[in-house]
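4.2 Preliminary Data

To establish feasibility before requesting continued support, the project team ran the inverse folding procedure on a target of 463 residues. The structure was first converted into the token representation described in Section 3, and no sequence information of any kind was made available to the design step. The complete token record follows.
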């Protein structure tokens, strides 16, 4: 029985760890976040020991009760951690043993921290994934609501951040919505793979104790047990994949944030952030800065960094547990925390953003936005596209050189150009309405997209 001051492996050792080696190895300050899932996993393991007749019903009930009590103590901040507690797993086992004496010492039969820590981290990340899923849904709903409001609001669509063709604001907002829908799909697919219990794998080669890993997995509400005990303790794909999904999602948020920062730039003036999502300057009284958007943009860098850290940690690492793997948790926690911080803030910023619909419409006076419509009008009349492009380009050049505008051209000039109703085409409402195809910027398409996204969110909620 451990007295709480010597490590779990003290039997074979004559000397305790050097303080600096202990300091390097200690992970309690961050893996304490695994406490409640460690209790859940430990209770499932106790039942496996009981099924294997290694504990009787009374012992098993006492262990479960002690585990739950230790879990409560930790959650309420009452648990007295010892300096010698290396990580949350050893602290909980020590806490149970302090309560139950020799019976507590039976808890670790047939398991290792190697299979335990993997199972804990899977359970923790699955719960984080569910929270993030809910936050992504909330942002998607905000985008869908704003898109419905602005299904007919015209704005210049851009390529290279320069005026390209008219679109609707709703269409642009839903472009972000579709990216998030893919994030939700990725999260769901990741969670199916991640729902695998490693308990029973032991340190690397299972055990001789007749435990039933499938039953343990079912007790934890997980889809399956490990298929190979070496893989079970070595695999960190589920963390790496979570970080990849998180980094992609954070990238999407950064691009949405970049649009918010651009639209609210006063030199463009298409929108303004609600005061609650802007900040002032300590020196310049006039300032209203888009810090929420800028931080949402900047935070993507650290989530990408989390993915890179873990990938660098894993690459080239031979199979089996290595203490290097203890470094998996901080990037995982950081990515989850960052998304849980950014998502609600950007959702609030989107929900309260004030669009200047008139400024967007005024920006559609840029006649270059209609050049493609003019070329396509020629194409509908049988002109090969390359020629239509050239003719339209030449028209723009002439207008430019002569200091004219397209809207100033006479009917005769339009007829000479080959598009008699050319003047009528210089109209943002007409331009977007003419793009009737699904997936385009027309009002009908935006409303249909909103419906389709809603259906995806509903189906997800029901699954
Ligand atoms: N704190 C360790 C980790 O997070 C737990 C596993 C320790 N296993 C070992 N063989 N030392 O990875």
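Position-by-position output of the design step:
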């Amino acid at each position: 029985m451990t007295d709480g001051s010597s490590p779990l492996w003290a039997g074979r050792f004559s000397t305790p760890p050097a303080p600096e080696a202990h300091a390097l190895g200690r992970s309690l300050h961050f893996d304490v976040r695994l406490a409640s899932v460690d209790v859940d996993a430990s209770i499932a393991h106790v039942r496996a020991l009981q099924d294997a007749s290694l504990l009787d019903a009374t012992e098993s009930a006492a262990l479960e009760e002690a585990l739950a009590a230790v879990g409560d103590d930790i959650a309420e901040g009452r648990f007295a951690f010892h300096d010698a507690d290396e990580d949350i797993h050893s602290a909980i086992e020590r806490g149970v043993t302090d309560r139950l004496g020799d019976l507590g010492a039976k808890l670790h039969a047939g398991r290792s921290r190697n299979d335990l820590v993997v199972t804990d981290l899977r359970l923790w990340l699955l719960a984080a994934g569910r929270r993030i899923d809910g936050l992504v849904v909330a942002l998607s709903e905000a985008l869908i609501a704003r898109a419905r409001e602005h299904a007919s609001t015209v704005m210049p669509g851009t390529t290279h951040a320069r005026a390209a063709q008219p679109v609707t604001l709703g269409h642009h907002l839903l472009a972000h919505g579709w990216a998030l829908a893919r994030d939700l799909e990725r999260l769901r697919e990741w969670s199916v793979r991640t729902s695998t219990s490693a308990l029973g794998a032991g340190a690397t080669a299972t055990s001789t104790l007749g435990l039933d890993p499938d039953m343990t997995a079912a007790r934890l509400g997980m889809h399956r047990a490990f298929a190979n005990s070496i893989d079970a303790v070595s695999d960190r794909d589920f963390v790496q994949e979570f970080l990849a999904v998180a980094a992609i999602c954070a990238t999407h948020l950064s691009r949405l944030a970049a649009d918010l920062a651009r639209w609210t730039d006063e030199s463009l003036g298409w929108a303004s952030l609600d005061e609650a999502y802007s900040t002032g300057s300590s020196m310049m009284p006039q300032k209203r800065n888009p810090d929420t958007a800028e931080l949402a943009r900047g935070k993507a860098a650290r989530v990408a960094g989390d993915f890179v850290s873990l990938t660098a940690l894993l690459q080239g690492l031979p199979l089996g547990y290595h203490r290097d793997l203890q470094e998996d948790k901080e990037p995982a926690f950081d990515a989850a925390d960052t998304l849980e911080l950014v998502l609600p803030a950007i959702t609030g910023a989107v929900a309260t953003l004030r669009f200047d619909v008139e400024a967007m419409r005024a920006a559609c006076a840029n006649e270059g936005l209609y050049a493609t419509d003019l070329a396509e009008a020629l194409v509908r009349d049988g002109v090969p596209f390359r020629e239509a492009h050239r003719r339209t380009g030449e028209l723009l050049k002439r207008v430019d050189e002569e200091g004219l505008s397209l809207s100033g051209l006479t009917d005769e000039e339009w007829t000479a150009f080959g598009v008699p109703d050319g003047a009528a085409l210089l109209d943002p409402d007409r331009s977007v309405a003419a793009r009737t195809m699904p997936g385009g910027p027309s009002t009908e398409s935006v409303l249909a997209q909103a419906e389709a996204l809603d259906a995806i969110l509903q189906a997800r909620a029901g699954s």
